[in-house]
Amino acid sequence: MWAMIVKEFRELRRDRRTMAMLVGLPLVLLVVFGYAANFNVSKIDTEALGPQAQQVAARLHAPFDVTRVDPSGTRAQAEDDLRENRIDVAVVTATSGTPVVLVDGSALFTAQSAVSALHSAGSAFQIQVLFNPDLKTSWVMVPALIGLILAFIGTIITSLGLVRERQAGTLEQLAVMPFRPSDVIAGKFAPYFGLAALDLLLVTVIGVVLFGVPFAGSVALFALAGAILLLVVLGLGVLISTVSQNQGQAIQTAILVLLPQVLLSGMIFPLAAMPWGVRWIGYLLPLTYFVNISQGIMLRGASFASLWPSYLVLTVMAVAVLSVAILRFRRDLAPNVRAAEPEPAAAP
Protein backbone atom coordinates (compact mmCIF):
# COMPACT_ATOMS: atom_id res chain seq x y z
CA MET A 1 0.00 0.00 0.00
CA TRP A 2 2.81 2.43 0.85
CA ALA A 3 4.34 1.81 -2.55
CA MET A 4 1.03 2.74 -4.21
CA ILE A 5 0.80 5.94 -2.14
CA VAL A 6 4.34 6.94 -3.12
CA LYS A 7 3.56 6.13 -6.76
CA GLU A 8 0.46 8.35 -6.76
CA PHE A 9 2.35 11.26 -5.18
CA ARG A 10 5.08 10.97 -7.81
CA GLU A 11 2.52 10.96 -10.60
CA LEU A 12 0.79 14.01 -9.14
CA ARG A 13 4.09 15.82 -8.86
CA ARG A 14 4.78 15.20 -12.54
CA ASP A 15 1.27 16.31 -13.54
CA ARG A 16 1.67 20.07 -13.17
CA ARG A 17 -1.84 20.86 -14.37
CA THR A 18 -3.45 18.69 -11.69
CA MET A 19 -1.10 20.09 -9.03
CA ALA A 20 -2.11 23.61 -10.05
CA MET A 21 -5.79 22.74 -9.62
CA LEU A 22 -5.21 21.01 -6.28
CA VAL A 23 -2.94 23.63 -4.69
CA GLY A 24 -2.90 26.84 -6.70
CA LEU A 25 -6.55 27.10 -7.71
CA PRO A 26 -8.00 27.01 -4.16
CA LEU A 27 -5.63 29.76 -3.05
CA VAL A 28 -6.47 31.93 -6.05
CA LEU A 29 -10.20 31.37 -5.56
CA LEU A 30 -9.97 32.27 -1.89
CA VAL A 31 -8.11 35.53 -2.50
CA VAL A 32 -9.86 36.69 -5.69
CA PHE A 33 -13.41 35.70 -4.89
CA GLY A 34 -13.05 36.71 -1.27
CA TYR A 35 -12.80 40.28 -2.54
CA ALA A 36 -15.36 39.76 -5.32
CA ALA A 37 -18.10 38.30 -3.11
CA ASN A 38 -19.74 41.59 -2.24
CA PHE A 39 -23.33 42.60 -2.93
CA ASN A 40 -23.12 46.11 -1.43
CA VAL A 41 -22.78 48.83 -4.05
CA SER A 42 -21.03 51.85 -2.55
CA LYS A 43 -21.42 54.22 -5.51
CA ILE A 44 -24.64 54.78 -7.45
CA ASP A 45 -24.52 57.14 -10.44
CA THR A 46 -27.40 59.58 -10.01
CA GLU A 47 -28.85 62.56 -11.83
CA ALA A 48 -31.30 65.20 -10.62
CA LEU A 49 -33.71 66.78 -13.09
CA GLY A 50 -36.44 69.39 -12.89
CA PRO A 51 -37.02 72.78 -11.25
CA GLN A 52 -35.83 71.68 -7.79
CA ALA A 53 -32.90 69.62 -9.02
CA GLN A 54 -30.28 71.68 -7.15
CA GLN A 55 -32.08 71.44 -3.81
CA VAL A 56 -32.72 67.70 -4.13
CA ALA A 57 -29.13 66.98 -5.22
CA ALA A 58 -27.88 68.67 -2.06
CA ARG A 59 -29.99 66.28 0.03
CA LEU A 60 -28.61 63.13 -1.58
CA HIS A 61 -25.66 61.51 0.14
CA ALA A 62 -23.68 58.29 -0.20
CA PRO A 63 -24.09 55.90 -1.89
CA PHE A 64 -25.68 58.32 -4.38
CA ASP A 65 -23.12 60.08 -6.55
CA VAL A 66 -24.86 62.95 -8.31
CA THR A 67 -23.07 63.35 -11.62
CA ARG A 68 -25.59 65.59 -13.38
CA VAL A 69 -27.98 68.31 -12.32
CA ASP A 70 -30.33 69.74 -14.95
CA PRO A 71 -33.17 72.06 -13.85
CA SER A 72 -34.66 71.83 -17.36
CA GLY A 73 -34.65 68.03 -17.49
CA THR A 74 -37.85 65.98 -17.83
CA ARG A 75 -39.06 62.54 -16.85
CA ALA A 76 -38.87 61.35 -20.46
CA GLN A 77 -35.22 62.34 -20.52
CA ALA A 78 -34.61 60.51 -17.24
CA GLU A 79 -36.25 57.32 -18.55
CA ASP A 80 -34.15 57.49 -21.71
CA ASP A 81 -30.95 57.92 -19.66
CA LEU A 82 -31.86 54.88 -17.58
CA ARG A 83 -32.76 52.82 -20.63
CA GLU A 84 -29.44 53.58 -22.30
CA ASN A 85 -27.55 52.85 -19.06
CA ARG A 86 -26.15 56.37 -18.74
CA ILE A 87 -27.27 56.51 -15.13
CA ASP A 88 -28.46 54.18 -12.35
CA VAL A 89 -30.91 56.47 -10.56
CA ALA A 90 -32.71 59.60 -11.72
CA VAL A 91 -34.57 62.02 -9.42
CA VAL A 92 -37.28 63.98 -11.23
CA THR A 93 -38.63 67.06 -9.47
CA ALA A 94 -41.48 69.45 -10.16
CA THR A 95 -42.32 72.95 -8.99
CA SER A 96 -44.38 71.39 -6.22
CA GLY A 97 -45.02 67.90 -5.01
CA THR A 98 -42.90 64.94 -4.00
CA PRO A 99 -39.81 64.22 -6.10
CA VAL A 100 -39.94 60.93 -8.03
CA VAL A 101 -36.92 58.63 -7.89
CA LEU A 102 -36.60 56.39 -10.95
CA VAL A 103 -34.40 53.33 -10.39
CA ASP A 104 -32.96 51.01 -13.03
CA GLY A 105 -34.25 47.59 -11.92
CA SER A 106 -32.15 45.71 -14.51
CA ALA A 107 -29.10 46.38 -12.31
CA LEU A 108 -30.53 44.31 -9.48
CA PHE A 109 -28.00 44.85 -6.71
CA THR A 110 -27.56 48.54 -7.48
CA ALA A 111 -31.34 48.98 -7.44
CA GLN A 112 -31.65 47.11 -4.13
CA SER A 113 -28.92 49.27 -2.59
CA ALA A 114 -30.60 52.45 -3.87
CA VAL A 115 -34.05 51.51 -2.57
CA SER A 116 -32.62 50.43 0.79
CA ALA A 117 -30.64 53.67 1.14
CA LEU A 118 -33.69 55.80 0.33
CA HIS A 119 -35.83 53.95 2.87
CA SER A 120 -33.12 54.18 5.53
CA ALA A 121 -32.72 57.92 5.02
CA GLY A 122 -36.44 58.42 5.48
CA SER A 123 -36.48 60.97 2.67
CA ALA A 124 -39.76 62.14 1.18
CA PHE A 125 -39.36 60.51 -2.23
CA GLN A 126 -41.70 58.54 -4.40
CA ILE A 127 -39.71 55.50 -5.58
CA GLN A 128 -40.47 53.85 -8.93
CA VAL A 129 -38.42 50.90 -10.20
CA LEU A 130 -38.27 50.60 -13.99
CA PHE A 131 -37.53 47.56 -16.20
CA ASN A 132 -37.86 45.14 -13.26
CA PRO A 133 -40.56 46.60 -10.99
CA ASP A 134 -40.60 43.71 -8.50
CA LEU A 135 -36.80 43.37 -8.49
CA LYS A 136 -37.07 39.71 -9.48
CA THR A 137 -33.78 37.85 -9.45
CA SER A 138 -34.90 35.59 -12.31
CA TRP A 139 -35.38 38.57 -14.62
CA VAL A 140 -31.73 39.50 -14.17
CA MET A 141 -30.29 35.98 -14.03
CA VAL A 142 -31.95 34.51 -17.13
CA PRO A 143 -30.24 36.87 -19.63
CA ALA A 144 -26.91 36.15 -17.91
CA LEU A 145 -27.50 32.39 -17.79
CA ILE A 146 -28.09 32.39 -21.54
CA GLY A 147 -24.52 33.60 -22.03
CA LEU A 148 -23.17 31.17 -19.45
CA ILE A 149 -24.82 28.21 -21.19
CA LEU A 150 -23.33 29.29 -24.51
CA ALA A 151 -19.90 29.62 -22.88
CA PHE A 152 -20.10 26.12 -21.39
CA ILE A 153 -21.27 24.51 -24.62
CA GLY A 154 -18.82 26.32 -26.87
CA THR A 155 -15.74 25.90 -24.68
CA ILE A 156 -16.13 22.36 -23.35
CA ILE A 157 -17.74 20.59 -26.30
CA THR A 158 -15.34 22.06 -28.89
CA SER A 159 -12.23 21.31 -26.85
CA LEU A 160 -13.36 17.74 -26.15
CA GLY A 161 -14.21 17.13 -29.80
CA LEU A 162 -10.79 18.18 -31.11
CA VAL A 163 -8.90 16.34 -28.38
CA ARG A 164 -10.91 13.22 -29.23
CA GLU A 165 -9.74 13.60 -32.84
CA ARG A 166 -6.12 13.62 -31.65
CA GLN A 167 -6.59 10.61 -29.39
CA ALA A 168 -8.39 8.63 -32.10
CA GLY A 169 -5.66 9.37 -34.63
CA THR A 170 -7.96 11.04 -37.12
CA LEU A 171 -5.95 14.26 -36.90
CA GLU A 172 -3.28 12.55 -39.03
CA GLN A 173 -5.91 11.71 -41.63
CA LEU A 174 -7.04 15.34 -41.72
CA ALA A 175 -3.42 16.41 -42.08
CA VAL A 176 -2.88 14.54 -45.37
CA MET A 177 -6.15 15.73 -46.90
CA PRO A 178 -6.23 18.90 -49.04
CA PHE A 179 -7.59 21.01 -46.16
CA ARG A 180 -6.18 24.16 -44.69
CA PRO A 181 -6.19 24.50 -40.87
CA SER A 182 -8.83 27.21 -41.22
CA ASP A 183 -10.98 24.76 -43.25
CA VAL A 184 -10.65 22.12 -40.55
CA ILE A 185 -11.53 24.61 -37.80
CA ALA A 186 -14.49 25.93 -39.81
CA GLY A 187 -15.68 22.37 -40.34
CA LYS A 188 -15.45 21.73 -36.61
CA PHE A 189 -17.09 25.05 -35.78
CA ALA A 190 -20.15 24.67 -38.00
CA PRO A 191 -21.95 21.83 -36.14
CA TYR A 192 -21.16 23.25 -32.68
CA PHE A 193 -22.15 26.74 -33.78
CA GLY A 194 -25.45 25.47 -35.17
CA LEU A 195 -26.28 23.44 -32.06
CA ALA A 196 -25.30 26.28 -29.72
CA ALA A 197 -27.42 28.70 -31.77
CA LEU A 198 -30.37 26.32 -31.33
CA ASP A 199 -29.66 26.23 -27.58
CA LEU A 200 -29.62 30.04 -27.59
CA LEU A 201 -33.10 30.09 -29.13
CA LEU A 202 -34.49 27.40 -26.81
CA VAL A 203 -33.08 28.85 -23.60
CA THR A 204 -34.25 32.36 -24.49
CA VAL A 205 -37.78 31.23 -25.34
CA ILE A 206 -38.03 29.06 -22.22
CA GLY A 207 -36.71 31.90 -20.05
CA VAL A 208 -39.28 34.31 -21.45
CA VAL A 209 -42.20 31.87 -21.24
CA LEU A 210 -41.41 30.04 -18.01
CA PHE A 211 -40.04 32.89 -15.90
CA GLY A 212 -41.93 35.74 -17.52
CA VAL A 213 -38.73 37.61 -18.41
CA PRO A 214 -39.57 40.43 -20.83
CA PHE A 215 -37.90 40.85 -24.19
CA ALA A 216 -38.16 44.58 -24.80
CA GLY A 217 -35.41 45.10 -27.37
CA SER A 218 -34.25 44.01 -30.80
CA VAL A 219 -34.11 40.27 -31.55
CA ALA A 220 -31.54 40.91 -34.29
CA LEU A 221 -29.17 42.73 -31.91
CA PHE A 222 -29.54 39.92 -29.37
CA ALA A 223 -28.82 37.26 -32.00
CA LEU A 224 -25.77 39.20 -33.18
CA ALA A 225 -24.36 39.32 -29.66
CA GLY A 226 -24.97 35.59 -29.23
CA ALA A 227 -23.19 34.83 -32.52
CA ILE A 228 -20.14 36.89 -31.57
CA LEU A 229 -19.97 35.29 -28.13
CA LEU A 230 -20.12 31.85 -29.74
CA LEU A 231 -17.17 32.70 -31.97
CA VAL A 232 -15.18 33.71 -28.89
CA VAL A 233 -15.95 30.62 -26.83
CA LEU A 234 -15.54 28.24 -29.77
CA GLY A 235 -12.13 29.78 -30.36
CA LEU A 236 -11.32 29.24 -26.69
CA GLY A 237 -12.33 25.61 -27.09
CA VAL A 238 -9.90 25.20 -29.99
CA LEU A 239 -7.11 26.84 -27.98
CA ILE A 240 -7.77 24.51 -25.04
CA SER A 241 -7.60 21.50 -27.36
CA THR A 242 -4.15 22.57 -28.59
CA VAL A 243 -2.69 22.54 -25.07
CA SER A 244 -4.42 19.34 -23.92
CA GLN A 245 -3.26 15.79 -24.58
CA ASN A 246 -6.44 14.08 -23.44
CA GLN A 247 -10.03 14.84 -22.56
CA GLY A 248 -9.30 14.99 -18.84
CA GLN A 249 -6.81 17.80 -19.38
CA ALA A 250 -9.25 19.58 -21.67
CA ILE A 251 -11.97 19.50 -18.98
CA GLN A 252 -9.53 20.76 -16.34
CA THR A 253 -8.43 23.68 -18.51
CA ALA A 254 -12.01 24.49 -19.50
CA ILE A 255 -12.97 24.70 -15.81
CA LEU A 256 -10.08 27.09 -15.19
CA VAL A 257 -11.35 29.27 -18.05
CA LEU A 258 -15.05 29.12 -17.18
CA LEU A 259 -14.98 29.52 -13.41
CA PRO A 260 -13.85 33.18 -13.43
CA GLN A 261 -16.58 33.94 -15.97
CA VAL A 262 -19.21 32.61 -13.58
CA LEU A 263 -18.10 34.71 -10.62
CA LEU A 264 -16.37 37.78 -12.11
CA SER A 265 -18.58 38.69 -15.07
CA GLY A 266 -21.14 40.57 -13.00
CA MET A 267 -23.61 37.70 -13.32
CA ILE A 268 -23.58 36.88 -9.58
CA PHE A 269 -21.62 39.67 -7.92
CA PRO A 270 -21.93 43.25 -9.23
CA LEU A 271 -18.75 44.58 -10.81
CA ALA A 272 -19.36 47.95 -9.19
CA ALA A 273 -19.00 46.35 -5.76
CA MET A 274 -15.64 44.73 -6.53
CA PRO A 275 -12.31 46.42 -5.72
CA TRP A 276 -10.39 47.49 -8.81
CA GLY A 277 -7.71 44.85 -8.19
CA VAL A 278 -10.33 42.18 -8.94
CA ARG A 279 -12.69 44.10 -11.19
CA TRP A 280 -10.19 44.38 -14.05
CA ILE A 281 -10.28 40.58 -14.44
CA GLY A 282 -14.00 40.87 -15.19
CA TYR A 283 -13.28 43.33 -17.98
CA LEU A 284 -11.12 40.67 -19.70
CA LEU A 285 -13.95 38.12 -19.82
CA PRO A 286 -16.29 37.84 -22.83
CA LEU A 287 -19.26 36.88 -20.67
CA THR A 288 -19.07 40.29 -18.94
CA TYR A 289 -19.93 42.07 -22.18
CA PHE A 290 -22.61 39.60 -23.25
CA VAL A 291 -24.33 39.95 -19.87
CA ASN A 292 -24.35 43.73 -20.33
CA ILE A 293 -25.83 43.37 -23.81
CA SER A 294 -28.42 40.70 -23.01
CA GLN A 295 -29.73 42.45 -19.90
CA GLY A 296 -29.82 45.76 -21.76
CA ILE A 297 -31.75 44.37 -24.72
CA MET A 298 -34.13 42.05 -22.89
CA LEU A 299 -35.00 44.16 -19.86
CA ARG A 300 -34.48 47.77 -20.92
CA GLY A 301 -34.87 47.64 -24.69
CA ALA A 302 -31.51 49.39 -25.03
CA SER A 303 -30.38 50.53 -28.46
CA PHE A 304 -27.16 49.75 -30.31
CA ALA A 305 -26.01 53.32 -29.66
CA SER A 306 -25.53 52.53 -25.96
CA LEU A 307 -24.34 48.94 -26.40
CA TRP A 308 -21.79 49.33 -29.19
CA PRO A 309 -18.75 49.40 -26.85
CA SER A 310 -19.64 45.91 -25.61
CA TYR A 311 -20.17 44.71 -29.19
CA LEU A 312 -16.80 46.16 -30.17
CA VAL A 313 -14.94 44.46 -27.33
CA LEU A 314 -16.60 41.12 -28.08
CA THR A 315 -15.71 41.46 -31.77
CA VAL A 316 -12.06 42.24 -30.98
CA MET A 317 -11.97 39.23 -28.65
CA ALA A 318 -13.45 36.99 -31.36
CA VAL A 319 -10.89 38.10 -33.95
CA ALA A 320 -7.97 37.75 -31.55
CA VAL A 321 -8.99 34.35 -30.14
CA LEU A 322 -9.82 32.86 -33.55
CA SER A 323 -6.54 34.12 -35.03
CA VAL A 324 -4.47 32.56 -32.26
CA ALA A 325 -6.53 29.35 -32.43
CA ILE A 326 -5.91 28.96 -36.17
CA LEU A 327 -2.18 29.63 -35.76
CA ARG A 328 -1.82 27.09 -32.95
CA PHE A 329 -3.93 24.52 -34.77
CA ARG A 330 -1.78 24.94 -37.90
CA ARG A 331 1.28 24.35 -35.75
CA ASP A 332 -0.28 21.15 -34.40
CA LEU A 333 -1.11 19.92 -37.90
CA ALA A 334 2.38 20.54 -39.28
CA PRO A 335 4.09 17.63 -37.43
CA ASN A 336 1.30 15.29 -38.49
CA VAL A 337 1.70 16.34 -42.10
CA ARG A 338 5.42 15.55 -41.97
CA ALA A 339 4.73 12.24 -40.22
CA ALA A 340 2.17 11.25 -42.80
CA GLU A 341 4.37 12.07 -45.81
CA PRO A 342 5.86 8.94 -47.45
CA GLU A 343 9.57 8.29 -47.10
CA PRO A 344 11.54 9.36 -50.16
CA ALA A 345 12.70 6.42 -52.23
CA ALA A 346 16.32 5.46 -51.76
CA ALA A 347 18.66 6.38 -54.58
CA PRO A 348 19.63 3.38 -56.74
Topology diagram in text:
Elements: H1 2-14, H2 16-36, E1 44-49, H3 53-59, E2 64-70, H4 75-83, E3 89-92, E4 100-104, H5 108-121, E5 126-130, H6 137-168, H7 170-176, H8 181-211, H9 219-242, H10 247-264, H11 276-282, H12 286-300, H13 304-340
Tell me the strand order in the biggest sheet: 2-1-3-4-5
Rounded to an integer, what's the Rg over CA atoms? Answer: 25 Å
SS field, number of helical segments: 13
- Counting helices, strands and paired strands, the structural category is alpha/beta
Write down the overall mean pLDDT.
Answer: 84
Write the element-wise H/E pattern from the N-terminal end onward: HHEHEHEEHEHHHHHHHH
**Span between N and C termini?**
60 Å
Count of individual beta strands: 5
> How many structural domains are formed by the residues?
2
Structural shape: elongated
Please give the share of residues in helix: 55-70%
What does the oligomeric state look like here? single chain
Q: Provide the β-strand percentage band.
A: 5-15%
Largest sheet: 5 strands, mixed
Poorly predicted ranges? 337-343
